Amino acid sequence: MTTQQLTDQIKKKKSFLCIGLDVDLNKIPKHLLDTEDPIFEFNKAIIDATHHLCVAYKPNTAFYEAYGIKGWKALEKTIQYLNQNHPDIFTIADAKRGDIGNTSTMYAKAFFEDLAFDSVTIAPYMGKDSVEPFLAFKNKHTILLALTSNTGAFDFQTKSIDGKELYKQVLETSKTYQNSENLMYVVGATKAEYFSDIRKIIPNSFLLVPGVGAQGGNLQDVCKYGMSDNVGLLINSSRGIIYASNKEDFAQAAANNAKALQQQMEEILNM
Ligand SMILES: O=C(O)c1cc(=O)[nH]c(=O)n1[C@@H]1O[C@H](COP(=O)(O)O)[C@@H](O)[C@H]1O
């Protein structure tokens, strides 16, 4: 998917919501545990109930890897279901990968070719040759961790090196990488006060913004300082949407929470 197609979808749906599919078998409704593939059945019900309210889904691979081969199969079925039924929806494999070049190439093949995701999250720590293998894929997107939502972000990302914070160096240096037009960045919703500075460096890049809902980030603040001319934001909520209820009504409850966020987004887009 191109970023133009993503922007078109945002304008059509009046939403820049990304729903995180972080499936924990301890949190899903008990009746689903009797089915053959509870993770997929949960995801399918959530997707069926919410696809008109969001523009992206982001399964975090940890939640699938934790269940071994069954988990990976459920991830595969989920992305196939999305690609077959909702090809207009942007898909993010939240895998936070990155390694020496030949290994990154294999990670890129796994997520872009085998699983056919539109994008994957990548840690920038190993630098240029660990990121460029992902960028080499046309119309696929590499979402680089810039300033994360957790408190540990202050351990390294905001520290100055040669007079400039590390997260700014990540943004500036990554712009020089080959095929850098395929880059997007992660910036946590809990770091709203940093968005103005970030937009000075990357005015138009798409930002994946996790941390609203369960982590306490504020949607209005993020939009005020982080929105670009082409919207340029994908706001993720995982637990705040998918675990709205653990009863039979879980999918409808998730849709209600997604709708509440989408309506706030619509108001912001209309301003
Ligand atoms: O890359 C991410 O998506 C990510 C980056 C970050 O800085 N903070 C962050 O919470 N995430 C992910 O975003 C999701 C947030 O989930 P909730 O806090 O339940 O909405 C989880 O899958 C996290 O792994």
TrEMBL record:
GO terms for biological process: 'de novo' pyrimidine nucleobase biosynthetic process; 'de novo' UMP biosynthetic process. GO terms for molecular function: orotidine-5'-phosphate decarboxylase activity. Pfam families: OMPdecase. Its EC number is 4.1.1.23. SMART domains: OMPdecase (SM00934). It is an enzyme of class 4 (lyase). Pathway: Pyrimidine metabolism; UMP biosynthesis via de novo pathway; UMP from orotate: step 2/2. The active site is at residue 96. Residues 16-254 form the Orotidine 5'-phosphate decarboxylase domain. It catalyses: orotidine 5'-phosphate + H(+) = UMP + CO2. Keywords: Decarboxylase, Lyase, Pyrimidine biosynthesis. PANTHER family: OROTIDINE 5'-PHOSPHATE DECARBOXYLASE. NCBIfam families: pyrF_sub2 (TIGR02127). Belongs to the OMP decarboxylase family. Type 2 subfamily. This is Orotidine 5'-phosphate decarboxylase. It comes from Olleya aquimaris.
